[in-house]
Amino acid sequence: MTAEGSVDPRRGAAAIDVQDLHKSFGDNEVLKGIDFHVGQGQVVCVIGPSGSGKSTLLRCVNLLEVPTKGRILIEGDEITDPDADVDALRARIGMVFQSFNLFPHMTVLRNLCIAQEKVKGRKRAEAVEVARRNLAKVGLAGKEDAYPAHLSGGQQQRVAIARALSMDPDMMLFDEPTSALDPELVGDVLAVMKDLASEGMTMMVVTHEMGFAREVGDRVVFMDDGVIVEEGKPALVLGDPQHERTRAFLSKVL
User: Fold this and answer.
1) What is the mean pLDDT of residues 229-244?
2) Pairing of strands 77-78, 93-96
3) Model-level pTM greater than 0.70?
4) Within its chain, how far is the Cα of 113 from the centroid?
5) How far is Cα 207 from Cα 252, in angstroms, rounded to an integer?
6) Is 85 helix (H, G, I), strand (E, B) or coil?
């Protein structure tokens, strides 16, 4: 864990470095000059009301949304450079969505293997070995032959995490990974994420789970209306917020 807002100089470049990021959809400016970073090995939780720009910021990091203005560097390499090898940089980033985005006509095992074979060029046997190892990591050993429709939402989300891990990412992006789950299923997904954090995985997490942010986050970033209003250590942002907008938001969710 590094000091508030800093990048540990011993760990090299920030995993994610966002500079003066703007994003507009037509006349609607969703991001209004964001400066943001995630240090190597850090867990940074992004919170805020719906429509504040949290998910758009996350999706810009791997260019699922193309910024209107600004720069984004992934481990020192600019993914927003017109000459960047975007596919190679995206290969360093695992992404877990609010909806699980599993292929419904494929078994769990095939969902984990197909990208390994097509993108990473792994042989079937190696892909299967990696898939089984990551299914065990998320507590789903034995579910290889199940189809997504036969799994709970929490199990499907854990499959999605295992699928992302099977691509050997340097960092993971989570876009409200528990918001589509029934409350009793949330804990299993958060437990997997906590384990990843304890192993040193760099993580950017857009979330409404304040307990997770408080317990696991190195930094919490509060966004509203397309800007970062406040950021710092979880105990400070969640326990002693300095900005009225932060206090008003937390009074409704805590």
Assistant:
1) 97
2) unpaired
3) yes
4) 21
5) 15
6) coil
